[in-house]
Design a protein that fits this description.
Length: 454
């Protein structure tokens, strides 16, 4: 029986070099321009070109689809195994020990935004295929490493890709946890908008992306609230600061903790810290609305749309982006909902809640849940590859609130690279991955790819 972990040892130095090269590219989506040469910006395109060039170097057939997405292909046959990766990353936020795109290695860990999500796993899957190629394995399916460029936002890249390219019959996304993810909750974004008198609130802003718990929030109010805010921070053991402005105003700044939106309780929403304080001191309908229905309630119990399912668990909500200025506000929420959620009733309930205050609500995005039979051949093959290199027979197969490219295919699951009982670091400061975990992931992926292409 082939031991791919041992076979990979001779590749480890090259693996680290290629991984660091990719991690050093700051591939954060800052703007999208549909007809531009680089639709997702120069940095993301640089990461894309980096992977295409690796493929050319190592003998893959390289396909670029309009600079929106592409693939690296090897093998032959009428069926295709898709390995769905992405090269964009979320914004870095504050609080890093090392520069977030330095790819610093310390104590066997490599630190960088994207180390876990999803550049580290992309390189791991790439090397798994490369190693099999070097062994002259004959693949009875085509293998396509599909490179997505805006997974952390709107999936426009893979949408364009699958408009022009064949949908793989089977696949996996190396973008989550081991043993594997056979179910993913639905993902919905909804936006509340409205107008109201400030009554002492001049501006409020927090959050950049709906899929990240915001770690910083800023409000501009009258400076008479300075002392009260400092006392509030101390009393509640929060972190923040104040900055005096002109015209008798002050900037209140609260610091929370980033986390992935699939489990907001892993973080601390900085916006909630400010809103709770402001609600004690100002008569502002927007602030009151937020505190009545959303603050510190990731399960939406205040609104009564707290759906739950035995397989996928509870609905969660991340109030990811909030803006108030010139008496106009927007509040963008990101929900992760289980199968059997009545999204129509949920939306109508939230429209009614908004109407109580004269505000509006609308859904801007909705991707339904994804589910693959845990007894399928795909799941069994992947699970056995995991067991082979971990001897872990007890960790359960999972469903998650996160959304991966696996849901792009009917028969695909998310598969690694995070091992059970590891610190949750995706979308957080000091994101890192243990190199040894990636080395083991390469072996698991190689075994799985080999068996899926027999």
């Amino acid at each position: 029986m082939k031991n791919y972990y041992e076979s990979f040892k001779k590749y480890q130095d090259d693996f680290i070099k290629d991984l660091q090269g990719l991690l050093k590219i700051p591939s954060v989506l800052t703007e999208f321009s549909e007809n531009a040469t680089h639709p997702f910006g120069d940095a993301i395109h640089e990461a894309y070109e980096y992977m295409l060039n690796l493929g050319k170097r190592d003998g893959f057939v390289v396909k670029n689809v309009d600079n929106y997405s592409g693939h690296l292909e090897i093998g032959e046959g009428t069926e295709t195994l898709g390995i769905l990766c992405h090269l964009d990353v979320v914004p870095t936020g504050d609080g890093w020990r090392f520069a977030p795109f330095s790819a610093t290695i310390e104590d066997g860990k490599i630190y960088a935004r994207g180390a876990l999500d999803d550049k580290g796993p992309t390189i791991a899957a790439y090397y798994a295929v490369k190693m099999l190629m070097d062994m002259n394995v004959k693949f009875n399916k085509r293998i396509r490493i599909i490179l997505g460029l805006d997974e952390e936002s709107e999936w426009r890249g893979v949408k364009r890709y699958f408009e022009k390219e064949k949908m793989p019959e089977v696949g996996f996304a190396p973008d989550a946890s081991f043993p594997l993810i056979y179910g993913e909750k639905g993902i919905m974004d909804g936006t509340f908008t409205g107008k109201c008198d400030g009554n002492g609130l001049y501006e409020l802003q927090y959050g950049e992306r709906t899929n990240v718990v915001p770690d910083k929030a800023i409000a501009i109010v009258d400076n008479k609230l300075t002392e009260s805010f400092n006392q509030y921070l101390v009393k509640n053991n929060y972190t923040g600061e104040t900055k005096s402005l002109e015209d008798g105003k002050v900037q209140l700044i609260a610091f929370g903790k980033n986390a992935h939106a699939m489990e907001p309780d892993d973080g601390l929403n900085a916006g909630f810290i400010l809103l709770a304080f402001l609600n004690e001191h100002l008569n502002n309908k927007f602030v009151e609305f937020c505190c009545k229905y959303f603050t510190f309630d990731s399960r939406m119990k205040k609104t009564g749309v707290n759906y739950e399912n035995e397989i996928m668990g509870e609905l969660t909500c991340n109030v990811g982006v909030g803006n108030y200025k010139n008496n106009v506000f927007s509040l963008v929420l990101n929900y992760r909902y289980p199968i059997n959620t009545d999204t129509k009733s949920m939306t109508n309930k939230l429209i009614d809640i908004a109407g109580e205050y004269g505000f509006d609500y609308a859904v801007s995005r909705d991707k339904g849940p994804h589910f693959v039979d845990p007894n399928s051949d795909l799941v069994k093959t992947l699970h056995q590859a995991y067991i082979k290199y971990t001897n872990d027979f007890t960790s359960p197969l999972l469903t998650i609130g996160g959304g991966t490219y696996a849901r792009s295919l009917k028969n695909a699951v998310a598969f690694g690279p995070e091992f059970p009982n590891k610190e949750a670091l995706v979308h957080q400061p000091n994101e890192y991955v243990e190199l040894e975990d990636l080395f083991k992931a390469v072996a698991i992926y190689a075994d799985a790819i080999y068996n899926l292409t027999r």
